[in-house]
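Lab channel / #folding
Pinned by the channel admin:
"Please post every new chain as: sequence first, then the structure tokens as a reply. Keep commentary short and put observations after the output so the thread stays searchable."

First post following the new format, from NK:
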Amino acid sequence: MNIIITGSLAYDRIMDFKDRFREHILPDKIHILNVSFVIDKLDEKFGGTAGNIAHNCKLLGLEPNILGAVGKDFKKYSDYLKSRKFNIDNIKVFDDEYTSVANIITDLDDNQISAFYPGAMKHGEEVKIPQEFNKDDFLVIAPSSQQEMIFRVQEAQEKKIPYLFDPGQQMTTLSQDNLWEGVSKSAISIFNDYEWQLFREKTSKELDDLTKLGVTVIVTQGAQGSIIYNSKGDEQIGVCSPKKVLDPTGAGDAYRAGIIAGFVNKWDWKVSGQVAACVSSYAVEEYGTQEHNPTIDEIRDRYNKNFEDKFPL
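Reply from TO:
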């Protein structure tokens, strides 16, 4: 089974604010907000939803195909992907654009303020899924441009490729119809708890409306773990304890890799969720979304210390 991962490819500029945003934002002056934060630390890392998910898939022994649109400054990222033997044949460079950039500021309470420049990502729908991919493969539709996500859903349905739908940062821009179409036809859809409530409000649909269609719905809840819902019931997945917490950015993408590994390897949902939780625990231990590189033995050891079930790899 081929795994095709679509989404953003970006340079992440990760910044630390050694204070709390709430101490500098006046609620009664929010209508004239004009505030600047002096940053203590700045790092530029390789990121983007497609790159992050692919990185974590590789940690679990998968060989994903990355598909996306990038700009004229992508060579540094491209060299890195080639050095790790990723298949990048389906990444298209647009020479008149820059690669996407995410600017992320994190405060002492792990609250984040982000600014995202899409750049070449707006051409994502011009990069087609190759003809050789079919119903026996698996597609990941991670957050990219609104237009690309809508297009990917159409592609998946035309090619009959099962897919994971992750609306993420595009929850606010995707229409009611687009959201319902993407989620209701998916094999798996993933939300955080805020996104799930927003989905319910925008579509007026409830959990049963999806599970009766055969969709597995996953809702992540940060430090409270996650819940996996399907037609057979639900699984409450606990957290996996990291050694330290330096940066929460990218933990969600790491979690998704565990779910993908579970789907393609046909693990049960409880084990899949626990592997996802385990992989995501490594992401928070480093600054940057692709800086953690545990071996499979290290992942197995942490899994076995946190969960009763046997590690599946």
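NK: The longest strand covers residues 87-94.
TO: also worth noting, The CA atoms of residues 29 and 270 lie 46 Å apart.
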